[in-house]
Amino acid sequence: MNYFGRVNKKYLIFWIIFISIILLAEIGLQVYFLVNKNSLSLPALNSTTLIDSPAKIEQKVFGYSAKGSPINGYEIGNGSDVVLLIGAIHGNELGSAYLLDQLVLEIKADPRLVSRSKKLIIIPVVNPDGYAVSNKLNGAGVNLNLNFDTTGWANYGPLGTYAGPNPFSEPESQVIKKVVEQYKPILMISYHTAGGIVSPEDGEQSAVLGKWYSGKTGYVYFDDAVAAAENVDWDFSGTATMWFVESVAKPAITVELTDHNRGDWSINKSALIQLIFSEGVPVD
Q: Average pLDDT of the chain?
């Protein structure tokens, strides 16, 4: 009697321990998937392990506009490979700012999305004076994306094409110049609206970056050859991306979203996440 009582007691203890282990494992899995559901759902990261060292996120004032408005942005990450992303250099292109703000929110939700090798400089609104009143030009009436010191610079004329009295006459373009000189980016993407295209600057590196981004988003790849074939006058001097390539010999592209107000987040999400998560310049 005592023997069988002892045996039954042992089986009871065994089953209690076994069931407890199963329950703890199930709870652990539920917690894991709850915490990581957003990260695990990203297509670009299906075969990649998230980094275990979250990126720092610092909001900064990079300078001030023609009317004294702060030019806000973010320095994100701990790496040495700097990626420069800018939007709303034309103040009426609201969607470009929305897209970059959305990227920052995504990173804040999971800072591990930024590669250890990367540092991001994100300036959603380069032209805060124009942005405040949905005006393409800055507070001094200058088209900022024609105000950079490039080959063939000209001050152009009326109807939104006035490039200023001289290159870098505007504080906003000076801010971008200072950022490039200070952080030395390995690539630059300038977001605009609304053409649904990706346009690379001259050089093979820019072409590679542009074709990669076009392939990820479905935007039309639109280089000088395409422009010539379609008889489109596309080659403006004085742009931020042209100046970047001429100054630092690194790749730069212009991305035109499909709508002035919407940010095309769903279209750009996969490309942007892969851009910030991968090492170097993505080319696949």
A: 86
User: What residue spans of the chain are helical by DSSP H?
Assistant: 2-40, 94-109, 128-132, 171-183, 204-217, 224-229, 240-248, 265-277
Q: 216-239: string of b/e by CB count within 10 Å (b at 16+)?
A: bbebebbbeeeeeeeeeeeebbbb
> What is the Cα–Cα distance from 43 to 168, expressed in whole angstroms?
41
Q: Kindly report the pTM of this predicted structure.
A: 0.81
pLDDT given at position 54: 76
Q: Are 168 and 270 within one domain?
A: yes
Q: Are residues 93 and 181 in the same domain?
A: yes
Do residue 112 and residue 240 come from a single domain?
A: yes
**If we measure between CA atoms, which residue out of 52, 103, 98, 38 comes closest to residue 74?**
103
Q: How far apart are CA 169 and CA 171, in angstroms?
A: 7
Name residues of the chain where pLDDT drops below 50: 1-5, 7, 29-50
Is the domain of 34 the same as that of 164?
A: no
